[in-house]
Design goal:
The structure holds two protein chains of two kinds.
Chain A (H helix, E strand, L loop, with lengths): L1 H12 L3 H23 L2 H17 L10 H20 L21 H19 L3 H12 L4 H8 L3 H22 L12 H13 L2
Helix pairs in contact in A: 1-2, 2-3, 2-4, 3-4, 4-7, 5-8, 6-8, 7-8
Chain B lengths: L3 H12 L6 H13 L1 H19 L9 H48 L1 H36 L2 H26 L7
Helix pairs in contact in B: 2-3, 4-5
The chains are: A mainly alpha, B mainly alpha.
């Protein structure tokens, strides 16, 4: 598979559009996912992913074979999405108004599907509060397991800048999560997830 | 109380659990046990991190690569159209500039055509006079040459020139004719 990929890369660098189509087939999912997490809706994510592959195809001659192709491709996608967000100044849309694309669901049942959609809404809501570059760093860190070095290369930042941005993003997301929590009625003891998390947290923090 | 430092420690320890000294770690732990807002923040972050880690990677609608190929074709077509338009605009500008220069040069003639007509006629007659002089010079040269060079040498010269002409014709035909590819 990897040998095939390096062959496709070499052919694509020589301008073979068929070889590049194989690369599109292989990397469509990570690129689309990054665009979706950055832009927040399926239509814009599709456009951005298509544009990313088009830009990559046009820049293939400049691609350095020693570098990971996925890192290079995701870097193009992230920069494009950051530009789009800054240029269009995306309007703040209520998370409830947005449609959520269907995921390939392995567990049957309407309840499970609804729960996953709700989770996606929550994730999108907390990502939406972040600055575009911070958002890209968070997506690369949590969805793609990128190291700091890879994030640095992809976003053209220094290691300390990446750490600082992730730090700031985590704080902002936690604060947003807190703000979105429904306030408990006075006198009612909180139960459920929060109660469990609290006991887990205290347990984890105990030396 | 200053919560900021504990919040910083809380999020710093997410990247590297060894980043805090044991004293800082203890202080953070004690603070989280006592402080409701920092505890809520820590719990909130834990839940956010769980959500992020559990969130699946989304896939595009089926047929993505086919749509990409169509987009590539459309992009190529658009590029071709842009190049054609640019070429047309460039050519039009060139023609316009050339016409402008010609008009600027001809402007005095257009304003006073009589004078330029006379000057033109004068130059034409001068040219005829030069041509007549050149013809006389050539005739003299030829007469001198026919007297000096014998008749046989003329015949040989004519023969060589004819052969060279035939050779040029054959070469031209061979070089310009399309090649036949045979198996």
């Amino acid at each position: 598979m990897l040998e095939n990929e390096s062959e496709w890369l070499i052919k694509a660098q020589k301008g073979d559009s068929q070889a590049f189509s194989y690369l599109v087939e292989t990397y469509q999912r990570p690129v689309y996912n990054l665009c979706y997490r950055m832009l927040g809706n399926a239509q814009d994510a599709e456009d951005a992913a298509q544009e990313t592959f088009l830009r990559a195809y046009k820049s293939m001659r400049r691609y350095d074979n020693r570098r990971s192709f996925s890192t290079w491709l995701l870097s193009i996608a992230a920069h494009y999405c950051i530009d789009q967000i800054r240029r269009r100044r995306y309007p703040v849309v209520s998370v409830e108004e947005l449609t959520v694309p269907d995921l390939p669901d392995v567990s049957p049942g309407l309840e499970s599907k609804l729960s996953r959609k709700e989770e996606q809404r929550r994730v999108r809501a907390i990502l939406n509060v972040l600055d575009p570059v911070d958002r890209a760093a968070v997506v690369m860190y949590y969805w793609y397991d990128f190291s700091y070095q890879e994030i640095c290369e992809s976003l053209s930042l220094t290691t300390s800048a990446v750490k600082s941005r992730l730090h700031r993003a985590r704080r902002a997301m936690a604060q947003e999560w807190l703000d979105r929590q429904p306030q408990p009625a006075p006198g009612v003891e909180q139960r459920g997830t929060k109660g469990r998390s609290e006991s887990l947290m205290v347990e984890r923090m105990t030396p | 109380m200053n919560h900021r430092i504990y919040e910083d420690w809380l999020f710093t320890s997410q990247d590297d659990p060894q980043a805090l000294t044991p004293e800082q770690d203890n202080a953070l732990h004690e603070h989280i046990q006592d402080c409701e807002s920092c505890r809520s923040l820590a719990i909130a972050w834990e839940q956010v991190e769980n959500e992020l880690l559990n969130e699946a990677m989304l896939a595009p609608e089926p047929g993505f690569s086919l749509r990409w190929q169509a987009r590539l074709q459309a992009d190529r077509l658009q590029k071709h159209q842009r190049q054609t338009t640019a070429l047309l605009i460039f050519s039009s500008l060139g023609v316009t500039a050339l016409l402008g220069v010609m008009l600027a040069l001809a402007w005095p003639w257009l304003r006073t055509p009589g004078v330029f007509l006379w000057v033109g006629l004068y130059r034409l007659f001068t040219l005829f006079a030069y041509a007549d002089a050149a013809e006389g010079f050539m005739a003299t040269l030829l007469q001198t040459a026919t007297g000096v060079i014998p008749f046989v040498a003329w015949v040989i010269l004519a023969g060589v020139l004819s052969e060279l002409a035939v050779l040029w014709g054959v070469s031209y035909r061979l070089l310009t004719n399309p090649r036949r590819i045979t198996r």
